[in-house]
Amino acid sequence: MRSIHKAAMKKRRRNICLFVSYDGTAYHGFQRQNNCLAVQNVLEEALTKVCGDNIELAAAGRTDAGVHAKGQVVNFFTDGKIPFLNLPRAVNRFLPHDIVATSACEVERDFSALHSAKSKLYIYKVYENKIPDPFLRRFVWSYEYDLSLAPMQRALSYLVGKHDFSSFKSAGSVEGINPVRTLYDASCTKEGDIYTFRFFGDGFLYHMVRNIVGTVVKAGNGRLNPDLMPEILAKRDRNFAGKMAPPQGLTLWRVYY
Amino acid sequence: MRSIHKAAMKKRRRNICLFVSYDGTAYHGFQRQNNCLAVQNVLEEALTKVCGDNIELAAAGRTDAGVHAKGQVVNFFTDGKIPFLNLPRAVNRFLPHDIVATSACEVERDFSALHSAKSKLYIYKVYENKIPDPFLRRFVWSYEYDLSLAPMQRALSYLVGKHDFSSFKSAGSVEGINPVRTLYDASCTKEGDIYTFRFFGDGFLYHMVRNIVGTVVKAGNGRLNPDLMPEILAKRDRNFAGKMAPPQGLTLWRVYY
User: Fold this and answer.
1) Which of A72, B59, B108, B199 could connect to A20 by a Cys-Cys bridge, CB 3.0–4.6 Å?
2) Contact A41, A22 (CB under 8 A)
């Protein structure tokens, strides 16, 4: 694993913020890994070629294996001289088709894509049909049983606001992390056979969105009374919520600073 | 290559018509091939498992490598007893996620998905943006230069009707094939950054849609006077038309009988 001395990196002159969009199907998540392909590996390699110095970046959201991003934000320090307006097209030449740099800007030294983030919007899509759609399959959870919108909307309504979301936090979370988060929006709309879930909040625990969707879909399928959501929240225990929804329906839509 | 004696196959009791949808990105086209993976290989193998006899099928359209289908139609003869209503879900269990059987019916013995087809609808999508979109890239031609809708619509208008389309036929076509085809519709609409081309006609020559799109996009980019289309048609020579558009923008949308 590459590791650049933090102090050496901080001596570099420019702090660049880059917006990135990717189809996560082929990757073992965003975060750099040793023995499998992560989005970060590919991005850092391409940026290193374009900037001329060894790039190590920080990202707003560490999306899991198979999860997508429309508006991932990263930042990195460099002495490279490329004008930031030219950076996206330059780096896209070294990126595979499923990862695209969409825009860039130069930011103040103390900006961190990870730590400066104020809130994030995640979108999760469920496709309700007995027959899956080969054109959607990479980007939706194909659900072959019946769903109703109203109980899902009702279940979601209990999640809006400031809560302890321990019941929706997967094992593997960082120990001792504060499980209290605020959701400004947790809603669902339907268009055709597609249910679109929106989660807008100040932060998300490990697997939180997918665990919420798995639980809410259970309500939509009639196997869970949506009015039990406050009780599930109050238990602060993962065992009381539903199964985790699969990764491919989830997209990190936008990060707000 | 498998080859079932035609006469033996015709003795089978049932003629089944199956509707199939696929993302063609991973395949070397529809038609069965020896040393690479075609949609037909995969479909026949899955159908053979479900039906219990060696399936050989005929398809309405032999889509090229990388071309998709939303409404491909195939038919095959079988003695298998599975009710046709159960067939799609049964065969989908043996199909990869990018090929899906959407419905099936039992048809008369003389029905042929290929020869009974009266007309076909092809859709071609172009995404006009300097930055490609990783979520669309499998299904559009990413075009980074400027396009105008009006000259493309004008160029297309000359193609509607009965014409000799030799200028839009790639080498590699079957020799001596009649190059006269009728297009009932050849049009283009725009929504956001996406241009959607519709081609509805009684038949299509080898690469005809992609050669037309390549030529029309040249008009949209200001490098071809759209009023030259009648002249290009009249030349009956492939060298006078534009370059062929890439496969991933093309989808066989529907076949009419």
Assistant:
1) A72
2) no
Long-range pairs, B160-164, Cβ under 8 A, ≥24:
B160/B184, B160/B185, B160/B186, B163/B233, B164/B233, B164/B236
In sequence order, which residues have a C-beta less than 8 Å from that of residue B31 and are 6 or more positions away? B38, B40, B59, B62
Question: Which ranges in chain B belong to alpha helices (H)?
Answer: 6-10, 39-51, 87-92, 149-157, 208-220, 229-235
Query: CA separation (Å) from A255 to A104, A113, A115, A198, B134?
Result: 14, 9, 11, 13, 18
- Cβ distance B130 to A92 less than 8 Å, yes or no, reads no
Is the CB of B193 inside 8 Å of chain A's CB atoms? no
Q: Which pLDDT tens digit goes with each residue over A206-241?
A: 999 999 999 999 999 999 999 999 999 999 999 999
Query: What's the ipTM?
Result: 0.85
Contact A89 B133 (CB under 8 A): no
Q: Which two tokens stand for residue A109?
A: 């030294």
A118 and chain B in contact, CB less than 8 A: no
Supply the pTM of this predicted model.
0.90
For testing the chain B interface, which of A18, A19, A20, A23 should be mutated: the one with the most B CBs within 10 Å?
Answer: A23
